[in-house]
Amino acid sequence: MSNPPASKIYLRPHNEPGRKHATRTYIIYFITGNPGLIEYYRTFLTHLYGLLTRDTASNRDVEFQVYGRSLSGFEMNNHEINTMKWHKLPPYGLQDQIRHAEDELTDLVEDVSDDGHRDVRVIIMGHSVGSYIALEIIRRLRAHGMAGEDWATRIIGGVCLFPTVMEIARSESGQKAAPFLKNSSFAFFASVVANFLTLLIPLSLLATLIKSLLGFPDDAAHTTASFIKSPHGVQQALHMARDEMFQIDTDFWDDEIWGAAHPSEHKHERAHLRFLFAKKDHWVADETRDKLIQTRGRHASYGVQEVDGLGENWKPVMDVDEREGFPHGFCLRHGVPVAEKAAMYVADIVAKDTGIFEKKKEDEKGWTW
Questions:
Q1: pLDDT at 369 over 50
Q2: What residues does 273 pair with on adjacent strands?
Q3: Taking a C-beta distance cutoff of 8 angstroms, is the pair 30, 66 a contact?
Q4: Peptide bond into 35 cis (omega under 30)
Q5: Strand (E) positions, 21-135?
Q6: How many other CB atoms sit within 10 Å of the CB of residue 317?
Q7: CA gap 360, 93 in Å, rounded
Q8: Closest CA to 102 of 148, 71, 146
Q9: N or C, which end of the chain has less CB nearby within 10 Å?
């Protein structure tokens, strides 16, 4: 694998001449964790796209697109960094990443609409800190809409995978990393050391060492080696991690995001949220996960959802993986099975949005459409 990791992955149907666009287009807008390289998620996103389009190839009512890009500052080359748009050089903080991801999403929706797609809707999906960014984008866009500034970007659902959305410093890894990240100079000096140690090591040899020492698959080892040798990657990851320690603490979102029994004054319905937690996650303390589920979510019992209109079905469904043993860094080796779970969540959100798809029990593995 000699090509540098891509900074963007965009999966969509081939635009054949004379072919009419679908009645409704759903964009799955994916936000990475940290380190924020989209190439780590290629297997996951490709399989997710395949599952979503499997039964819609001849269906002109619905079209799916899957889009994801590396977080700002993780680009492989300096010329890829959009300094003109962001008005500053890396490293970027957490709030910068939220603004950049929001801008990218609104630009994407505008481009898809300008391409002739009439009804464009978004399901925003995030992994780890990407889930925090996703929820914050939902909040900001709904606030813009309430102020009459932006109705065009319509987010109908959110999927949060192994989310770090509160109390990250209380997690096992957070407690280990916090003493180092409290030092504001740590990110810079760590990146200098990393660059010095790997300066004379060829990319292919570094990837081989990473594969041997960490047991990474070939593609993940190559991506990691490229990340270490990238212009700003190591400093960017640590700089952003420091922000995460200080900012991802209390739950500050209100009922407009989490859902509520009373109707919203917003033009669009609230986004349907789905969460997937690991049974054991070194970046999410068990107590934090359980508290979030207790205060904000509801369980799905064996895949069976509550009947609409009964109970608290307006709350986000929060699943805990009790069987598969998915790790926090699922993208390294578990991209395919997690994509299958994510596709189920998308199906559920689309079903609530349109009623087009009927969910059926396929086998003990779960739900399909």
A1: no
A2: 158
A3: yes
A4: yes
A5: 24-31, 62-69, 120-127
A6: 19
A7: 43
A8: 71
A9: N
Tens of pLDDT, residue by residue over 332-352, are: 999 999 999 999 999 999 998
- Degrees to nearest 5, angle at CA 325 with 313 and 44: 80
Domains of the chain: 8-165+252-368 (3.40.50.1820)
d(CA 334, CA 326): 7
What the block records as the tokens of 252 is 């500050």
Reply yes or no: is the peptide bond before residue 91 cis, omega within 30 of 0.
Answer: yes
pLDDT of 197-223, one tens digit each? 999 999 999 999 999 999 999 999 999
- Using alpha carbons, list the distances in angstroms from residue 249 to 98, 173, 174, 196: 16, 15, 11, 34
Which two structure tokens, joined as six digits, stand for 302?
């064996």
Contact criterion met (CB below 8 Å) for 319 and 277? yes
What percent helix, strand, coil does the chain show, rounded to 5? 45, 15, 40
Q: Exposed e or buried b for every residue in 41-77, given b needs 16+ CB within 10 A?
A: bbbbbbbbbebbbeebeeeeebbbbbbbbbbbbbbbe
